[in-house]
Amino acid sequence: MASRVKRAYKFRFYPTAQQAELLSRTFGCVRKVYNLALHARTEAWCQRRERVNDHVTSAMLTAWKKTEELAFLNEVSSVPLQQTLRHLQGAFAAFWDKRARYPRFKSKRTSRASAEFTPSAFRWKDGQLTLAAMEPRRSRRTSPSADRDAEDSIGI
Question: What global pTM score does this model have?
Answer without folding.
Answer: 0.78
